Amino acid sequence: MHPDIYDEKFTREIEKLITECGGDPDTFQGDLVMQLIQTSLRFLWEGHDLGQLKLIARAMKEMRYAYRIFNRYEGIRRVSIFGSARTPEGHLDYQLAKKFSSAMAALGWMCITGAANGIMRAGLEGAQKEAGFGLSIKLPFENTDESFLEGDPKMISFKYFFTRKLMFMSHSDAVAAFPGGVGTMDELFEVLTLLQTGKANLIPVVLMEGDPDGQYWRNWEEYVDKQLLAKGWISPEDKHFYHIARSQDEAVEHIQKFYRRYHSSRYVKDELVIRLHSPLTPQQIDKLNAKYGKLFKEGKLESCNPFPEEKDHLELPRIKFWFTRKDFGLLRALIDDLNSL
Questions:
Q1: Within 13 Å, how many C-alpha atoms sit on residue 324's CB side?
Q2: What is the pLDDT of residues 216-233, one digit of tens each?
Q3: DSSP labels for 36-65?
Q4: Which of 268, 242, 238, 272 is nearest to 255 (CA)?
Q5: What's the whole-model pTM score?
Q6: Mutual orientation of helices 328-340 and 182-197 as an angle, nearest 10°?
Q7: How far lies 339's CA from each of 28, 75, 216, 262, 313, in Å?
Q8: What is the pLDDT of residues 33-83, one digit of tens each?
């Protein structure tokens, strides 16, 4: 017979611990910590083996530490840069990645890379240490001891790919992908999957190549068109999730344009609220309603004031609608349109 950790006797003891550690058990934050402790106690008798416990404990420690570091830079836009660790310094892709990250840093953005060599090092060199995050992964054949960010607290080491990917996506306001191998494709398709399924906030994704006549992304898109789109495995609207940029300036402009009017979005109960840098006119709203009715479960898109549940960005104008929570590629197109109106 196992103890009932949800019994009042146990909860009082946990509440006492939370209070002694400076928390308030009566807040939602305190309740979440309570749940974490209760879940951890269940591991003692549920039959989890040592390997499972080590994985869970290590993953939680990695996430806690990484969130703590990123939280120091709250409010600063960030772009994640993916690409091959094997790209040599003299390669056109390397030079473009360095120039691109430098251009983004000059606009006040920070850059997140994998902290290894190749495109990742180029991204950090361009951004410089002050504007760079390095999310390294422990691999037997990669040495990060000579990383560009070695000794900087923004150099964060991970044992697991899944915790590392979580940090990339949960802190990225844009993604730039350069030619690479299996790892680059894994990261890119992970991003596209999360955008397609609505499991991540919509962000701009640019695909870049140093050689203006290069075929890497053209061949990639040909595969997407012939093997995914033509066979019905993706929708035509899904191609709105990425943009093949022919130059550094085009990539920077594409990212900037995404945030020209669009600021951010969140769900409030059944409605999607989109915060804007500038309001839409009634005529512009009518245009969006006529074009994007497929996205509305019922009703229509309209201007609104902040909801009582919202606690941030209360000064920004808003629009809202009852989103079907599918066709995220079409929602991405709507954002492009409201930025262009």
A1: 14
A2: 999 999 999 999 999 999
A3: HHHHHHHTTTTT--HHHHHHHHHHHHHHHH
A4: 242
A5: 0.93
A6: 80
A7: 36, 21, 29, 6, 18
A8: 999 999 999 999 999 999 999 999 999 999 999 999 999 999 999 999 999
